[in-house]
Each structure stands twice: as structure tokens, then as C-alpha cells.
Amino acid sequence: xxxxxxxxxxxxxxxxxxxxxxxxxxxxxxxxxxxxxxxxxxxxxxxxxxxxxxxxxxxxxxxxxxxxxxxxxxxxxxxxxxxxxxxxxxxxxxxxxxxxxxxxxxxxxxxxxxxxxxxxxxxxxxxxxxxxxxxxxxxxxxxxxxxxxxxxxxxxxxxxxxxxxxxxxxxxxxxxxxxxxxxxxxxxxxxxxxxxxxxxxxxxxxxxxxxxxxxxxxxxxxxxxxxxxxxxxxxxxxxxxxxxxxxxxxxxxxxxxxxxxxxxxxxxxxxxxxxxxxxxx
Amino acid sequence: xxxxxxxxxxxxxxxxxxxxxxxxxxxxxxxxxxxxxxxxxxxxxxxxxxxxxxxxxxxxxxxxxxxxxxxxxxxxxxxxxxxxxxxxxxxxxxxxxxxxxxxxxxxxxxxxxxxxxxxxxxxxxxxxxxxxxxxxxxxxxxxxxxxxxxxxxxxxxxxxxxxxxxxxxxxxxxxxxxxxxxxxxxxxxxxxxxxxxxxxxxxxxxxxxxxxxxxxxxxxxxxxxxxxxxxxxxxxxxxxxxxxxxxxxxxxxxxxxxxxxxxxxxxxxxxxxxxxxxxxxxxxxxxxxxxxxxxxxxxxxxxxxxxxxxxxxxxxxxxxxxxxxxxxxxxxxxxxxxxxxxxx
Lengths: 281, 344
What we know:
A: mainly beta; Jelly Rolls; five-stranded antiparallel sheet; B: mainly beta; 3 helices; 20 strands; about 45% strand
């Protein structure tokens, strides 16, 4: 008989993917399999190339994830793996493991589920001796036997990213990036920024991280009011992020202006992490 | 009689008390299973102590003659020594548990134990390793005057060396301290090391815990804060190998013979070790097999999941190792649950 206390829960599964593919994770292992409410505190992502010799995995900017809970998306289309969380220690470098820890638990109704899709960029370098990547996803949380009913509203995390994948892209983000595509205001709590050398998959050079940028909020106010700021000053190397408190209303967006256009050796990716409240689905 | 230092307003103002630490140590030969003297971790201060952590070190340094000493520190996994703890008649551990499942590691990226370092001019070995950790208590543990922590230690002989084990409990002492009825508790499942000498992808090696492993033996409701999952890697490393990388170590034959090392990508080992778990309440806590580090995230090797376990409740964990090819090392997993109960 189920206990009346919350019980630990981790659900997850893994798939293999090759360059240029888009794959959906099977849904069935991504739910607890019992009709009780449950909460998810973190999404854990892990990816590594098939066994081979000494090449670096570097999947962080090439492997992109999309999460959605029924009709409620958690991401705005696909977001590079390393833009879903700040860096933490060494584990979040060089491919491997990333964890999107939610500011507050996401409560799912009985039978609810977070589905996941991934795509691997076609020009991913060093993807192992064979171009096969194993990617795993897991949701860590608790079974909530103790809840007799769901609350009226639940808080759902959200992430949107400006991914300058296309070499030679414009130096400024467009209204379709870093936007709020939802029917609710988003409370933003963090920005994450990374730069990758697309030809090697490694970090960009120090000189590239020294490029300057500016981020504007939906009202057009510069976030760094002292003018442009170097990339690694805004997104320091240890966390690649900075905390931000603000609201992104419906149909608005942040705007980024880089002083140096993206290139094959300098591909910035900037995302925001936040959440919104929706009626209990 | 120990001298109690004068009060200092700089030590946690508003919480009273003076900083205090009590330490003890013992040397264990392989196979030893001993009790520390009962007065080793006793409160002889005449005033109650609120303990906030237990710190440990295990040191097995020893060198066998060689012309090429190791140039990098080598690790000793905390599985090499197991400990059981009790306060009066209250258990703090569910039987013996590995040292390194007592607390979350901080800043630990890779855990490994080097059994030997190959000298590439001959086959002499260098041995020696060291590890340490802190079990930070989420609630203070009260050690009344005259009472002591009972400690039992076992050296399982993973290294054929004596191991010097040291303990220190730290906290605050003073007559004006608030009282605490909380007791920490750890239970663990630590099966024998996997030894994948042949690929087991088609016939995985499977081990399953029992009702006596991850169990609440306190007799009280247990407030579990987290699980810890540790993977010790027992390997052999050559002088040219980078040990601070999450690679499988080369075999000694590869090192001596100059054969290119077999390397695996980060996470390859973790992903080959999968886990399911269920509890005595009928919950499938991990219903589908997931990679080990998807349950116990690699930053703190922890799975934070506050919940309450009833007396005698337990978890059953099943580990399955299915590496795609031969690993030149043994894999030593350990899983623990850490919590507190109000039983003093």
C-alpha cells in the first residue's frame, strides 16, 4: 500500500542518435507508471559518444533538447544542452552531464509526463569513432501520495535560447529568440551564456570571450547600464551565468547585441531560465 | 580535565557555546575488525556538546622501492574501510557502512583507487593512497557529558596495506546550548566489486540489495534527506596516464608493453551501470533502469529527495553492469541513504 508520505522517484531512459538526426525519447519510461501526482525537481541529461579513442565528446552545444508537458512547453523549441543550467564544477564541461535544477518543483498530475526530444547538429565534430551518441534523460523528484488533490495552478519552468548556429549570423538576436511565446508572463531568474568553437567543439578562445555585448530587457533598457560588457564578465567562466530577477510579459522578448558577429570559431548561445504559472492541466 | 576555552562572541553569535573537537584514530591491518576504545570519542568536558559534523581520513601510504615514484596523488576509496556508529543504545548506522557514504563529497570530480602504479622500467609497484570526508549533520547531535560515540571499524583488504583511520567530531560546547533530540542515521548497500573481465553486454552482472541493507533500523520514523551513490574504480595506472580523468585505466600489460591505452569517454562506465529501485511501501522509485549517475548526480554524488521512512521500512536497489567491452578495472558501487530521527 502506498505510503502517505512523498516517496523518492527517478524516471528516465536513453536513446542513441547520429549527426543530423532528431529523436523523441520513448514516453512510457518517462512517467512513474502509477496514477498519483508527482513532482520533478530536476531534469538530468547525459550524453557520450560510443566507445572510441581519445576524441573529446564536446556535445554540450551540439546536442539540443526540447521538453514539453502535454501542451505546455518547458523549452522554446530546441535548446543546447549546456544552456539549460549554469556550469557547476567540472562535471558540466566537455559534454557529459548536465542538470536543469528547477527553482521550485514542477508538480505533475496523475498520468502526466514530460516528453523529451533531442537533435544532434549535423556538423558535430569529434563525435566518436562511430557517429553514434548515447543520450540519456532522467527526471528526479518525488511521488506525492500525500496530495489528495492538485492545486489550482502549477508552476512550470521555461527556457528560451538565442542559438547562433548559422555561421555568419546577424550580431543581434531577433524577436523569435529569447522570447515569451506563452500565454502567461514568465518570471525570469537567470541568464546562461556560452561560446563554442564550432569547428572543434571546444570552448572559444579567451579573445573571443573578450568580445563585448549588451542585453536589453523588453522595455529596451540595457541590463548592464554601464554600456557594453565583455562576454566573460557577464557570463563568468565558473558558472557561465548570472542571476536576474524580472518578468517577461507575453509577446515580448529580450534582445542581445553582439559587437562581433558569430563565426565558425565563435558561436555564442544565450538563454534565460524562468517559470510561469498555468491552470492545473 | 580538558580546559574549556572562554566564550567568544565571534563563534556563531546568538547560538552560544565554544568550538570543540574530539579526535581518535586507529590502524587497521587488512582483515582487521576492531572497536575503538570506548573513551576515544567521549565527552569528558562536563558540559553538553552539540556536534555538527564527523570528519574522517583513511591513509594507506606505503612505498615499495621503485625508481619512478608516482608524480600525481593516488586515491583511496572510502569503501576500503567500513564503520558502524552508535550513541548509547541508539544506532547511527544500519550495520557497517563504507566510510565514503557518510556525507556528500565536495569538489570531487572523479573517485578512484589505484591498486598499483606501474614502473615502466620493471614491474615493481608503488602503493599508497589517501581519502577523507565530512559528514555534516543536518541537525546537531547532542553528546551529553560522559557519553561517547561507539565506533567499530573493518578493513576489508581492498589494499593489502594497513590503513590509518582518523575520526574527529566537531561542534559547540556550553551549558547554555539548546538541546537536540535528533540523531543522524546512515544505511548502505555495498555489494562486492564488479569485475568485468569479459564483456557482459549480453549477460549483465546483476546484484540486488536485501531488506537488511537500505533499511531504517532506528525504530523511529526516519527523515531521509538524500541518497548517495558512489562508484569506486579499482584500477592500475601507468606513469603516462592521467588519473584525474573519468577514463577507464589502462591495464598493466598495456602500460609495460607500450600498447596504446584503451580509453572510454566520460560517462561510459556510469552509463553501463544501471539502477532500478523500489521500496517496502510498494513504490517503484526508479521503475526503469537508468544510468547510475542519472540517479546520483555527479556533482555531489547525491540524490536529494526529502521524505519519511517508517520503522523497518527499506529500499531494494538492483544494479546491473553491462559494459560494451572489457574494462580493465573493477567497479565498486555503494548506495546509502542519509537521514535523521528524533530518538534521543
